[in-house]
Amino acid sequence: MSSDELDIQIKNLDVHYATGVHALRNVNLELKKGEILSILGPSGCGKTTLLNVTLGLITEDMLVKGDVIVAGCNILKLKVTEKINFYRNVGIGYVTQKDTLLPWKTVMENVLLASHFRRDKNINFEEEAKKYIELVGLKGFENYYPDQLSGGMRQRVQIARCLTYSPRILVMDEPFGALDAYTRMNMQKELTTILNIAKKTTLFVTHDLDEALIIGTKVAVMSKRPGTIKEIFDVDLPYPRDPFKLKGTSKFEELRNMVWECLSKEAI
Amino acid sequence: MKISLRTIYINVVRFVILAVLVFLWELASGGIYEDFELISPLIIGRPSLIAEDFIRYVTSDLFIRDLSATMQATIWGLIIGIVSGVGLGIIFAYSKFVEDTFRPFVVAINTLPRPALAPLITIWFGFGIISKILVSWSIVFFIIFFNTIQGIKSIDPDLIKVVKVMGSGRMGIIRHIILPAIATWVFAAFRVSVSFALIGAVIGEFVGAHAGLGYRILVASGLFETNRVFTVLIILMILGICLVKFSEYVENKVLKWKPPTAIY
């Protein structure tokens, strides 16, 4: 496969922490443009570390070896100012489990946050913001503050925020982890609809097996610490997906059993 | 605005309680029957005489002089306390070296009851306004300083990560995250600080002054002018309420995203 087709390429990645913890061991991963990879693994296996390294968010207590090539650029080799320019030029959307909306900004101001840092003349931020606020079902809430919204609504604002600046890559770290079961399934359905329209290369971390299968076009199972990619499964199910209809179908159950067989050996 | 029956009822009860207390006070001090004087008005004052004195005092030049001295010390103590508290708080929060080096000194000074410093400050800076401003500042500074540090330390690192990944540099992080986060904590401290700034100014005047509301209390109590002491206390109370209401107004205007604040 030509490296031009790859949006994310991780080669021989090893991460140690200053505390002596060996977080990741020989991780190799390739993600083509538009692919959606769910990453599953037991708690503490290094999923979040893998995302942080992929995003270039390296802290002083991390010792990182290997190569992380994102959009053709080795993110581990970039200096501070080069990294800022890289983020501005490539565009990476990052959604966390925790609510990272700025409480002092309204929904619209939060969604427009990236417009302060990016000077992409091809993007009409106001129009994009309106479009994605509507797409995530929050039209009419533009002037609300995060405190006035429910947990599910806040997560949707986060998704709208990172789609507004048209990122090439989306990185999501258990974005629905704090939501109740019903809201979570609704959000999964909405996200697949959005991703089907927006066609973003996506890394999606979760420890919910069903969620991994619903969101991902591929599912990577990680081993326990030090984490490595144990196996990657293709999820050959039509997109967008509706968890309310998908669960219980024979194809879904078959995939679920296969992934579970692999994952269960890693569970404590 | 619709006023509920309960609000009317509570206000009536409040008024009745106040009226009864004032009546009993007037009665006990011999204001209603001269023969029935339980305690001398020299000791406890007398409401009717306090009312007379209040009008006399607030219409005099003396009041303008005293009020001006106390307000100047309060406001300057507050302004300098906020500016220095925020500035040094930011330096402490971001410089591990400064924090590690100076933390024991800050903790030691903070444990001192600041009014105890007032005599020393007066010896050093004299009976003028500077010593009152410094006493007021010494109280306000630590409240703002610790709240600024707390504000910065309470920032969720994930907020900064997300904004960095969007392409923000250091200035963007300061403008969009750090300053608003500090503002939240500083305004919470501001509400408390306005009262403490007034306390600091009055304490400074107790120790040594030529004018001011604190100085007027000291002079009046020395001369057994109890009614004047009560007059000045009422003025200080009104002043304190006005300052707190002003801080609430400013906070609600600036921090529009927070639910409105109201404290007594």
How does this model look, in words?
The complex is a heterodimer of chains A (268) and B (264). Chain A has 268 residues and is α/β, with parallel strands linked by helices. Chain A has 9 helices and 10 strands. In chain A, the strands form 2 sheets. In chain A, strands 6-7-8-3-9-10 form a 6-stranded mixed β-sheet, with helices on both faces. In chain A, helix 4 packs antiparallel against helix 5 and helix 5 runs parallel beside helix 6. The mean pLDDT of chain A is 89. Chain B has 264 residues and is mainly α. In chain B, 80% of the residues lie in helices and 0% in strands.
User: Structural class of the secondary structure composition of chain B?
Assistant: mainly alpha
The H/E string of chain B reads HHHHHHHHHHH
Total number of helices of chain A: 9
Report the radius of gyration of chain A as a whole number of Å: 18 Å
Q: What profile does the largest beta sheet of chain A have? A: 6 strands, mixed
Radius of gyration of chain B: 23 Å
Helix content class of chain A: 25-40%
The total of helices of chain B stands at: 11
Largest interface: A-B, 27 and 23 residues
Global outline of chain B: globular
Helix content of chain B: over 70%
Give the neighbour order of strands across the main sheet of chain A: 6-7-8-3-9-10
